């Protein structure tokens, strides 16, 4: 078989040590490579072309098909890659902590006041605001408040504030994680389309969306969440997690969570005891899934947290059984055939 380098390729004698290039040779090589790269860019710019113009583009669906058809990867590896691709297409606003659940610190708050507040919470990083929650100026770490004995008690949180990253809520999870890791950020403020604060997201939130829940030694044992119905779920579940947990697919709309679906279906703020029927969704072919209950499902509001649904029960609707008409047996006289008179 012919060598890739051709018959003119010189071989190094066996046993002969490979010589490392000297610093001068490495410097000259770097200059040559940079000059060649710059010349290539200059020529392509003059010609109006792009260096990546000849590269073949591949869609996410094609990439997933290639992974599914790959015979080198085993079934578990293909499943993991497919789940990462699917989860990576989720949006940041679907995995963020909404602003209503974020603990904000004010720039004017002293470290003594901040210490009392953070000791009662379980977070490590806290956004700092100057005015309203839409005016986030940075964040402070738990260590900044608790592990700085040299600080003057009159020091304000504003003096300890670090720079915070901002991400649009429409950014995809995988792209957001890549960007935050590259720039060294652990927390980002999620900004909505109007420029206001929609919530916050951490690298851990993004990673958990890709690989599943991560529990450390400080977390309690997670409560088992059996799938299937009937079920009681958190209203904060996004539509995908709600479908995975209950098997019920809620229609997409101007909401991200099961609580938002209930509010949109009611057309008003929910109250405890409100019920929302969910009709079985049609499959891609237009036919109903035979596994879905004929009567659909019923969502019932069990508890509220402020104006938001915090606990929600989900159960299949049982249609009333058709009534059977029972006919009384005929008497002997009635059952005797009529004879000639």
From TrEMBL:
Cross-referenced PANTHER family: HLYC_CORC FAMILY TRANSPORTER, UPF0053 PROTEIN YRKA
Annotated keywords: CBS domain, Repeat
SUPFAM superfamilies: CBS-domain pair, FAD-binding/transporter-associated domain-like
UniProt keyword Repeat present: yes
Protein name per UniProt: HlyC/CorC family transporter
Lineage, top ranks: Bacteria, Bacillati, Actinomycetota, Actinomycetes, Micromonosporales
UniProt cross-references to InterPro entries, sorted A to Z: CBS_dom, CBS_dom_sf, FAD-bd_PCMH-like_sf, FAD-bd_PCMH_sub2, Ion_transp-like_CBS, Transptr-assoc_dom, UPF0053_domain
Pfam families reported for this sequence: CBS, CorC_HlyC
GO molecular function, one term: flavin adenine dinucleotide binding
Residue span(s) of domain CBS: 96-156, 160-217
């Amino acid at each position: 078989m012919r060598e890739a380098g051709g018959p003119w390729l010189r071989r190094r004698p066996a046993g002969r040590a490979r010589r490392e290039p000297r610093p001068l040779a490495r410097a000259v090589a770097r200059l040559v490579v940079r000059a060649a790269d710059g010349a290539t860019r200059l020529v392509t710019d003059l010609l109006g072309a792009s260096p990546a113009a000849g590269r073949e583009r591949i869609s996410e669906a094609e990439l997933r098909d290639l992974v599914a058809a790959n015979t080198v990867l085993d079934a578990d590896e293909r499943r993991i890659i497919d789940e990462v691709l699917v989860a990576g297409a989720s949006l940041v606003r679907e995995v963020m902590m909404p602003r209503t659940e974020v603990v904000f610190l004010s720039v004017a708050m002293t470290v003594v006041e901040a210490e009392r507040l953070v000791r009662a919470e379980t977070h490590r990083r806290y956004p700092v605001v100057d005015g309203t929650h839409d005016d986030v100026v940075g964040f402070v770490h738990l260590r900044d408040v608790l592990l700085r004995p040299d600080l003057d008690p009159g020091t304000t949180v504003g003096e300890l504030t670090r720079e915070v990253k901002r991400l649009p809520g429409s950014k995809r999870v995988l792209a957001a994680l890549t960007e935050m890791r590259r720039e060294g950020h652990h927390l980002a403020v999620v900004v909505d389309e109007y420029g206001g604060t929609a919530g916050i997201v951490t690298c851990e939130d993004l990673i958990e969306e890709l690989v599943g829940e991560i529990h450390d030694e400080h977390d309690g044992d997670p409560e088992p969440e059996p799938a299937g119905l009937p079920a009681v779920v958190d209203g904060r579940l996004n539509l995908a997690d709600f479908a995975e947990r209950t098997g019920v697919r809620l229609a997409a709309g101007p909401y991200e969570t099961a609580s938002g679906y209930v509010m949109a279906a009611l057309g008003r703020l929910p109250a405890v005891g409100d019920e929302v029927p969910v009709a079985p969704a049609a499959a891609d072919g237009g036919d109903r899934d035979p596994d879905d209950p004929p009567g659909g499902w019923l969502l019932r509001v069990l508890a509220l947290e402020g104006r938001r649904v915090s606990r929600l029960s989900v159960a299949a609707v049982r249609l009333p059984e058709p009534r059977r008409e029972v006919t009384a047996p005929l008497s002997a006289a009635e059952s005797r055939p009529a004879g000639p008179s």
